[in-house]
Design goal:
Structural class: mainly alpha
Strand order of the largest sheet: 1-5
Order of helices and strands: HHHHEHHEEHHHHEHEHHEEHHEHHHHHHH
Largest sheet: 2 strands, antiparallel
Strand content: 5-15%
CATH topology of the largest domain: Serine Threonine Protein Phosphatase 5, Tetratricopeptide repeat
Radius of gyration: 26 Å
Number of domains: 2
Length: 538
């Protein structure tokens, strides 16, 4: 009975107190004054920069690289080959992770952060009108992420993406042409809006661990991205391409390797955070059975030149990309088996173990015979490459050859040769021993001189080589140019009819859960369907 009376009195007291309070006062009582309700947007900028290297995943820095960059794109463009089955090399669609990973992780992680920065620094945000440089950097990062997504999938959610807090849980899909139109506008505006005199510059500089607040380098990155995107649409929208090639050149693209964008990596805090996902995915026992993923015959033959009995015509990058065949186990990684460049051999694409055994007339253990990726480029704290200056030089050379845009000084040959030099000399960030002297570059250019009649083939081939480690971007370049000429595999049971894939497929969960997929995604949603800039539907 005493307990009942106490409960009654307590309830009565609550009622009396509530009667003396209005609704607003009761609401205030339910707010934790110590809760975090505002986050410094510069923290989000740092996280967004790191997300460019972990490719959307804040929980696993190797996930998307392992599945899409490596297990799909590197095989599709024939930088690597394997005896295993995968969508990139054997053109199977029974393992959807490599195709699904970017869609899942970019929207879930990377794009959420930049979207929040833009929301809070825009109209109605709690720092509206502030953090000018943080906002512009976030706009450029968001363009980088979105242009990759639409390049891979075609039409994707854009204008309604990442608006769950606004009640949009099934975003519409925007056409790729419309996405590109807006992304290029965003780059144009963002590059022009940076301000070194902004009162919040110190916070921006502290958050920017890539360019250390160097606005000139941010602009060069933005305009280099603009040049890439302008040339990407050049086969289907000449006017858009010409407009933005001209703007990019006038704004100023990357001019040397000091401008390259690398995201710094670290060994801490754990195996899942801040480490180079490519290095981790290659490491035996961590990323998987990568002893079967070796440099392809297509790549090695290109690097070795036509005279396989001499090193005189070799590309200097032959001994940068690989140091030969070696042991490839967690307990013994890197012991040389074949270290003489004259004996370097790449693995044929599109074959399996039985094919190798039959061809060579003996049982073949791939990693004891074919070239593996150079271990000097595989440390967990290696910097992660986002974009290099060589690309801008190659694109300027191509634009001059094709007569796209205006304002490019110099000749197609001068830009081509500058691109080759920059591409060959960018790898010292991994190890000082990977330096290539000017004399070696000069010798290479003398051996393989620029020729106007084959200029587009030369430019595309050098672009293909310059994007080692950035295979998903090289895949997009190849889809646009169809160069260099790659011989596709026609492995039994493939899903493309023996053609190299040209699109990733949307995850099944998205297809089933968003009704907009059926009406506005790029269709048919298959690896053989071209995106707009590759000649497909808008």
């Amino acid at each position: 009975m005493k307990h009942i009376i106490k409960l009654f009195l307590s309830t009565l007291l609550i009622i009396v107190m509530a009667a003396g309070c209005d609704t607003d006062e009761l609401h205030e009582m339910n707010i934790n004054p110590n809760a975090v309700n505002q986050i410094d947007m510069n923290y989000f900028l740092t996280a967004s920069l790191l997300g460019m290297a972990s490719n959307g995943s804040s929980g696993d820095n190797r996930y998307t690289d392992w599945r899409t960059n490596m297990n799909f794109a590197s095989f599709a463009i024939q930088h690597f080959a394997s005896t295993g089955g995968n969508a990139g090399e054997k053109y199977f669609d029974n393992d959807m992770e490599p195709q699904n990973a970017p869609f899942q992780f970019y929207y879930r992680d990377a794009l959420r952060r930049t979207t929040e920065i833009l929301k809070q620094t825009g109209e109605g945000g709690y720092v509206a009108g502030r953090l000018v440089n943080t906002r512009q950097a976030a706009r450029i990062i968001r363009v980088f992420d979105m242009h990759r997504l639409t390049d891979w999938y075609g039409s994707v959610p854009y204008t309604e993406a990442n608006k769950g807090l606004e009640g949009i849980f099934q975003p519409k899909y925007d056409k790729q042409k419309a996405i590109y139109t807006d992304l290029l506008k965003e780059l144009d505006e963002a590059c022009a809006a940076f301000n070194a005199s902004d009162i919040d510059y110190a916070g921006f500089k502290a958050a920017d661990f890539v360019f250390d607040g160097d606005i000139a380098k941010w602009k060069k990155f933005g305009y280099s991205l603009m040049l890439r995107m302008a040339m990407r649409v050049s086969n289907v929208d000449a006017a858009m391409a010409a407009t933005y090639v001209t703007k990019a050149v006038a704004g100023g693209t990357m001019t040397g390797n000091a401008d390259n964008m690398w995201v710094k990596m670290a060994l801490t805090p754990s195996e899942w955070m801040n480490q180079n996902g490519i290095s981790r995915a290659f490491y035996p026992g961590d990323g998987g059975a990568w002893q079967g993923s070796l440099l392809s015959k297509t790549l090695i033959d290109q690097l070795k030149g036509p005279n396989k009995a001499s090193t005189a015509d070799d590309d200097p990058r032959l001994t940068i990309f690989t140091n030969g065949a070696m042991t490839w186990t967690a307990n013994d990684l890197g012991t040389p088996i074949i270290s003489d460049p004259l004996l370097f051999e790449g693995m044929p694409s599109g074959v399996d173990g039985s094919w190798l055994n039959n061809f060579y007339g003996t049982t073949v253990t791939p990693y004891t015979k074919f070239c593996a990726v150079n271990t000097k480029m595989m440390q967990d704290d290696e910097p992660y490459q986002i974009m290099n200056a060589a690309e801008s030089e190659f694109l300027k050379a191509e634009a001059l050859v094709r007569g796209i845009g205006s304002g490019i000084t110099g000749t197609a040959q001068s830009h081509y040769e500058a691109g080759v030099r920059m591409a060959m000399q960018l790898y010292t960030v991994y190890d000082a021993s990977l330096a290539v002297s000017d004399a070696k570059v000069d010798a290479y250019l003398a051996t393989y001189p620029y020729a106007a009649g084959t200029a587009l083939v030369q430019i595309a081939t050098q672009m293909w080589l310059s994007k080692f480690m950035m295979w998903w971007d090289a895949w997009s370049d190849w889809r646009r140019t169809d160069l260099p000429v790659l011989v596709p595999s026609n492995y039994p049971g493939n899903a493309t009819g023996g053609t190299i894939p040209v699109k990733l497929q949307i995850p099944a969960a998205e297809a089933a859960g968003n009704p907009n997929y059926a009406t506005t995604a790029t269709m048919p949603d298959k690896m053989t369907t071209k995106v707009w800039w590759d000649g497909g539907a808008e």
